[in-house]
């Protein structure tokens, strides 16, 4: 399939990340395979901030954290209108990322792109409408029906959790998003759904669903040289994005999402 060139896309020009948001990675930092209880490795300053925030009421803690993030990344203020925007009608039109992240990926789309994603939704529709060949994996059958109804051209597959296996969603993910899954489901088949694709065969791999650490591990070999692996909500620090992939350039972009919360999306560019 042929994708629209960024130059003729209706999207705004991609936001250029600051030097603080762009960095090279040097060493891998992934928990042992199948270990959903592996401890997070958190910088000392972040640990102190988290302890302070934990001592505050939830609403105040969120305000304190977001204020620090805005001070560190003032460009976040360009996305603050998402907090008051009514976006329910657009929930399946664009990715559920912050606007800066959407613009950034728009600027890296290429003709004939092939994408694979864990976590269906607005990103599926958005990519397919730009001519990208999309294969999308989703664990929620009801949500799959909604996505297929909105985007029949995409290859959307339902791969629900099972009662037996080894791979569970990370506790940080389950707690942060208040998922129905409390650790009782296994997602081995969900993670392995990308195995039907050959190595170096995908231009874009998106990790925005269950078992994100394992999806990164499984998806990394599938990305072409020069391709990009996208991990949403890296602010939850399932792993440190600066040390996630050896030799890959990491670009982390903060901003308010359509869900009205402040989140980080990280793009990992594989060297050519």
Tell me what you see in this structure.
There is one protein chain. Helix 8 links the parallel strand 5 and strand 6. By secondary structure, the protein is α/β, with parallel strands linked by helices. The N terminus is likely disordered. The chain is globular and about 45 Å long. Helix 1 packs antiparallel against helix 2. It has one domain: Rossmann fold. About 25% of the residues lie in helices and about 20% in strands. It has an 8-stranded mixed beta sheet, with helices on both faces.
Itemize the secondary structure elements and their pairings.
Elements: E1 22-24, H1 44-54, H2 58-72, H3 99-106, E2 114-118, H4 122-128, E3 133-138, H5 141-150, E4 155-158, H6 171-176, H7 188-192, E5 202-207, H8 212-219, E6 223-232, E7 249-256, E8 262-269
Parallel strand pairs: 2-3, 2-5, 3-4, 5-6
Antiparallel strand pairs: 1-7, 6-8, 7-8
Helix pairs in contact: 1-2
Write a short abstract of this structure.
Helices cover 26% and strands 18% of the residues.
């Amino acid at each position: 399939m042929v994708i629209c060139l960024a130059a003729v896309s209706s999207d705004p020009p991609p936001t250029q990340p600051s030097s603080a948001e762009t960095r090279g990675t040097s060493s891998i930092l992934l928990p042992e395979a199948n270990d959903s209880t592996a401890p997070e490795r958190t910088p000392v300053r972040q640990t102190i901030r988290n302890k302070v925030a934990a001592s505050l009421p939830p609403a105040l803690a969120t305000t304190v954290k977001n204020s620090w993030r805005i001070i560190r990344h003032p460009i976040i203020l360009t996305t603050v209108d998402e907090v008051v925007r009514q976006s329910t009608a657009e929930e399946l039109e664009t990715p559920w990322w912050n606007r800066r992240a959407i613009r950034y990926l728009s600027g890296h789309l290429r003709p004939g792109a092939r994408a694979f994603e864990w976590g269906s939704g607005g990103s599926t529709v958005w990519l397919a409408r730009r001519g990208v060949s999309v294969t999308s994996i989703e664990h929620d059958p009801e949500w799959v029906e909604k996505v297929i109804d909105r985007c029949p051209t995409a290859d959307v597959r339902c791969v629900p959790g099972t009662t037996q296996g080894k791979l569970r969603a990370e506790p940080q993910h389950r707690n942060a998003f208040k998922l129905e899954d409390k650790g009782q489901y296994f997602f081995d088949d969900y993670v392995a759904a990308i195995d039907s694709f050959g190595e170096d065969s995908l231009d874009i791999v998106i990790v925005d669903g269950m078992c994100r650490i394992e999806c990164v591990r499984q998806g990394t070999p599938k990305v072409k040289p020069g391709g990009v692996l996208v991990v949403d909500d890296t602010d939850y620090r399932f792993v440190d994005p600066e040390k996630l992939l050896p030799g890959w350039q990491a670009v982390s972009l903060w901003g308010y999402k359509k869900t009205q919360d402040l989140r980080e999306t990280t793009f990992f560019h594989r060297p050519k």
